[in-house]
Amino acid sequence: MARQGFAFRIGTRPMELRQLRYFLRIVELGSMSKAAKDLYIAQPALSSQITNLESELGARLLSRSVRGVSPTRAGDALYLHAQAVLRQIERLKYDVANTDALPGGPVSVGLPTSAANVLAGPLIAAVQQRYPDIQLRIVESLSGHLLELVATGRLEMSLLFEAVPGAGSPSKEIQRGGSIQWVPLIDEDLYLLARPPQGGGSAPTVSLEEAAGVPLVLPGSSNVTRQIIERRFAEAGLAPSVMMELDSLSTIQSIVESGQAATILSLSALVGAGVREKLSVRSVDDPPLRRRLSLCNSDVLGMGAAAEVIGALIPELVCELVASGRWAGARLLQGGPAQ
Fold it and tell me: Helix (H) and strand (E) counts for the chain?
């Protein structure tokens, strides 16, 4: 492997970028031997580099066990900052080589599944049309997992769901929590979704007390929406009647359409032409059951030119989708994202 020529000094010894690259790969693979194979370097030489890095920083960075290698608390801190350093170097190389070009290069964006149902297509189309030199990478997962990926620098930004804050909390302004910047975009209603009763006809709204008596299929306990539902029921002294848990929204939809159970989800979770017309869609009142969608990125890592334009494009598209009615059940916060 070619030697990295860039180094910076901490204490009395220079730290080389390759040491940071080695460290990141070890953490990502959870194994010294796997990292050595992946990096095409002998394992003793790799171990020596990490030992030198630990010596330079004066801290133990990795914990070794029979299950593999994991970062210590000091290693976690280095992982985050190493991501920032290496990402800035890559941006520097690109920006210097492409000073007169449109923003380009890879940008990674996280989307929860229901948000991806609505936004992924328009986002991909807009990037291809406006920024053809950007290589967009979309990661679809649960909000909790996506938050971890943003915090550790593996995603540059992500849309994340959370509970709607209480009265008096900021609705549109930038919020900061730890190393994550949150920019709230929309509040989205959750509905009791079920196969219509025979003969048709059902009230457009349902109370929490009524909903508590309906057999439900819901996402698992690690799902943010499930946590919001459980918390709201608990605040009312109730508990949802959960007959099964599934983390696949498409399977939940299939079960609801078959009449085996109802669910409480957003309209954005539904996929398929005319599917809403096939279901009973009832608002949950006392008060409305809602969740908030925010655009999040790391304060520590920052964003390059390509990520900056994607970070501005996403709120623009969300605003258009809500205003046109294509994001049903969503409401923009205080008139929509700032332009």
Answer: 10, 17
Amino acid at 99: T
The angle at the Cα of 69, spanning 297 to 45, to the nearest 5 degrees, equals 105
Same domain, 171 and 301: yes
- Residues 267 and 290: their CA atoms lie apart, in Å, by 12
Domain that residue 309 falls in: 101-183+296-335
pLDDT in tens, 203-242: 789 999 999 999 999 999 989 999 999 999 999 999 999 9
Tell me the per-residue pLDDT of 272-315, one tens digit each, with 9 for 90 and over. Answer: 888 888 899 999 887 789 999 999 998 766 678 889 999 999 99
E strands, the chain, in order: 7-10, 13-16, 62-65, 68-71, 105-111, 134-140, 157-163, 175-177, 180-189, 191-194, 205-206, 215-218, 241-245, 263-265, 280-284, 290-298, 330-332
In a domain, residue 128? The reply is yes
Would you say residue 135 lies in a domain? yes
**Coil vs helix vs strand at 101:** coil
Instruction: Specify the number of domains making up the chain.
Output: 3
Give a yes or no: residue 35 inside a domain. yes
Instruction: Look up the pTM and report it.
Output: 0.73
Which one-letter amino acid corresponds to residue 207? S
Residue 1 in any domain: the answer is no
The CATH number linked to 142 is 3.40.190.10
Give the per-residue pLDDT at 12: 42
